[in-house]
Amino acid sequence: MCEPKKIVIVSDGTGKTAERLMDAVLAQYSQKEVEYSLVRTYQQVRDKQAVDRVLRDIDSDYLVIFSIISKDLSRYFHEQLTERWILHLSVLDPMISTMSKFLGVHPDYRPGLLQIIDDKYYRKVDAIGYTVEHDDGRGSMIDAADLVLVGLSRTCKTPIAMYLACNHGMKVANIPIVRNPSMEANLLERLKPVPGARIFGLMMQPEVLAHVREERLMFLARDAEQQVALREYYDLQEIREDLKFCRQLFNGQDWDTVDVTRRAIEEISLEILDKMVANRSGT
Q1: What region does 64 belong to: left with phi over 0, alpha with psi -120 to 50, or beta?
Q2: What is the pLDDT of residue 219?
Q3: Average pLDDT of the chain?
Q4: Which residue ranges make up each domain of the chain?
Q5: Which numeric CATH code is attached to 121-281?
Q6: Cα dist. 60→15, 73, 82, 267 in Å?
Q7: Distance (Å, whole) CA 223 – CA 178
Q8: If both were cysteines, with which of 10, 107, 118, 236 could 42 make a disulfide (CB 3.0 to 4.6 Å apart)?
Q9: For the domain with range 5-111, which CATH number is right: 3.60.21, 2.40.30, 3.20.14, 3.40.50?
Q10: CB 86, CB 57: distance < 8 Å
Q11: What is the pLDDT of residue 58?
């Protein structure tokens, strides 16, 4: 059997960009009898000394895939590899060259920028996963929350939480409120690890909430008998009492409150973010 083809990746960052491109291309050879091995990924290669150290490890049996943004360093690496008859590919050069012609401007040529973007992306993925796991009172890592939303059923807790996770990379837990003294004690015990400045209570005008709940119940209830049995869910007087209970709870804990009545999720989220910034600055 032939030995596996040897590949190394060389990057001025983490090497993830080159590795993904390599994987995408190699996926096209899945039906072929091709053996290869990614021997090593060289990271943070940002000067000639680092390039020379890489060159001491490889020979013409290797394929070198590199992503180095510095023009001078990339040119130096290319020249050294060519002299040694080492097959190589710069994954950034063709894209940057074409993009510069199209845009009419030169790039910043700063290494590590894509790593920053990648880190932001993965933080956002983590935030979405956390928010899904901690929806509607679920989840066990409440202390890791960037934000906790509490409020009655149908006060937009889940949509707000998902918007903040998807668009701002925030880990958001949301917990429903039920008018019940034991629920209050359990809630406060669970929220002990969370700073009060991260906890927001959601409020809605009672008439609007009653209408929202009635529409939801008519959609979910299977028959008229079920609708009658669950009528308390959208009873206006019950909702007023529930909101009074919430208001007393939120005020008693000095939690910020946000009225979500007939407001866009983006607008509500912006208000929450603004208040969190103000809380951090002490204003």
Answers
A1: beta
A2: 65
A3: 89
A4: 5-111, 121-281
A5: 3.40.50.300
A6: 21, 20, 10, 59
A7: 25
A8: 10
A9: 3.40.50
A10: no
A11: 95
Indicate whether this model's pTM tops 0.70: no
Please say if the pLDDT value at position 51 is more than 90: yes
CB–CB of 134/174 below 8 Å? yes
Which residue type is seen at 87?
L
Residues near 269 by Cβ (< 8 Å), separated by ≥ 6? 160, 163, 164, 167, 168
Output DSSP code: residue 3: P
Q: Choose among 270, 161, 137, 263: nearest CA to 204.
A: 263
Tell me the pLDDT tens digit for each residue of 189-248: 999 999 999 999 999 999 999 999 888 777 666 666 566 556 788 899 999 999 999 999
77: exposed, middle or buried (C-beta count within 10 Å: 0-12, 13-18, 19+)?
A: buried
Q: With 60 as the cut, is the pLDDT of residue 169 above it? A: yes
- Tokens representing residue 36 in the block: 């290869």
pLDDT confidence of residue 115: 58
204 contacts: CB under 8 Å, gap ≥ 6: 151, 152, 154, 155, 156, 212, 243, 259, 260, 261
Q: pLDDT-based confidence at 96, cuts 50/70/90?
A: confident
Q: What is the pLDDT of residue 282?
A: 67
CA-CA distance, 75 to 69, in Å (whole number)? 10
What are the distances in angstroms from CA 96 to CA 67, 69, 85?
11, 9, 25
Q: Are 153 and 176 in contact (CB under 8 A)?
A: yes
